[in-house]
Design a protein that fits this description.
Shape: globular
Order of helices and strands: EHEH
Number of domains: 1
Number of strands: 2
Distance between the termini: 21 Å
Radius of gyration: 12 Å
Strand content: 15-25%
Largest sheet: 2 strands, parallel
Length: about 70
């Protein structure tokens, strides 16, 4: 399984701040989206991928919301 790692200081680094949708429905930030797609393109198309987010402890309470937003994107 391939792992794509992202390091963030706040959850807002992942999402488009101009998107007026509720947080769990927001689009990913253009830079985050490009980075994830670029990394994913380095692996075989059928290889399972895991996205590993690194951030401060205070983001742990938002993990479910961030996971839902990423899957929705």
């Amino acid at each position: 399984m391939a792992i794509i790692e992202i390091h963030v200081r706040t959850r807002l680094q992942l999402f488009d701040s101009m998107d007026p949708s509720p947080f769990h429905e927001r689009s990913l930030d253009r830079n985050a989206d490009s980075y994830i797609l670029e990394c994913a393109g380095e692996y075989h198309p059928h290889e399972p991928l895991r996205l590993l987010l690194h951030g401060p402890e205070n983001m742990r309470s938002c993990l479910g919301e961030m996971t839902q937003a990423i899957h929705s994107h």
